[in-house]
Write a structure and sequence with these properties.
Elements: E1 12-26, E2 42-50, E3 60-66, E4 76-79, E5 84-90, E6 95-102, E7 111-116, H1 126-134, E8 139-150, H2 154-162, E9 168-171, H3 172-214
Antiparallel strand pairs: 1-2, 1-8, 1-9, 2-5, 3-4, 3-6, 6-7
């Protein structure tokens, strides 16, 4: 297999949105799933996905979740195909490490994210939260994230720009030059304005001196 093209596309940044987080369902004691430990109060799923179900497999090769090591057997769960998600049950909230691995063509290091598993409602007044708990409403906690591929490899650039939807390509260098140009224009205008005011004041002082000499 030929080595991937690692030459970088200069001045380009490409953004790809993802959503990661969890949904949790309170367990009905009268309808407890078979085999669930007696002290587990919720079933939950943590996932990584594209926005509105968009495909992310063309730039993400695999996703690794690391659960609480003292609670779950085989706490490191790795998925190379969607859905990238883990479904479990438990009673406590804890931090989950999520590691995204990109395709070799990207020549990018894995990206590590962290998500704190949320099982209970925390937003709203106490009566609203108590109602949600009593009705066993699902609890959601999701985060929108934009992955930035800064000056991607030529191979990864081709992959990112020819697959998926909702893509954002920014010519970073050109935009920066435009910002600098606009900033210089504003500075020049301000300098010119100050010069004109100084010239006017010098003229006013000169006329005042002439007037005083004639008195």
């Amino acid at each position: 297999m030929p080595p991937p093209n690692t030459k970088r596309v200069k001045g380009i940044s490409i953004f790809r949105p993802i959503v990661y987080g969890n949904i949790a369902y309170p367990v009905d004691p009268s309808d407890r799933p078979r085999g669930m430990p007696a002290d587990h109060t919720h079933s939950w799923t943590i996932s990584v996905a594209g926005v509105d179900g968009a495909d992310i497999t063309h730039f993400i090769k695999k996703v690794q979740f690391r659960l609480h090591a003292d609670t779950y057997a085989n706490p490191t769960r790795t998925f190379e195909h969607p859905p990238f998600e883990v479904t479990e049950s438990g009673w406590g909230e804890f931090e989950i490490q999520i590691k995204l691995f990109f395709h070799p063509e990207s020549n990018e290091k894995p990206l590590t994210l962290f998500h704190y598993l949320k099982l209970h409602p925390y937003l709203g007044d106490e009566s609203a939260m108590e109602l949600a708990r009593s009705q066993r409403e699902p609890v959601t906690s999701y985060i929108y994230e934009e992955l930035v591929f800064n000056e991607p490899t030529e191979a990864m650039f081709d992959i990112l720009t020819s697959n998926g939807s909702g893509e954002f390509v920014v010519e970073a260098e050109a935009l920066e030059l435009d910002r600098l140009g606009e900033g210089l224009r504003i500075v020049h205008e301000q300098i010119q304005s100050v010069r004109e005011k100084l010239a006017q004041r010098e003229q006013d002082v000169s006329e005042m001196r002439k007037a005083l000499e004639m008195m």
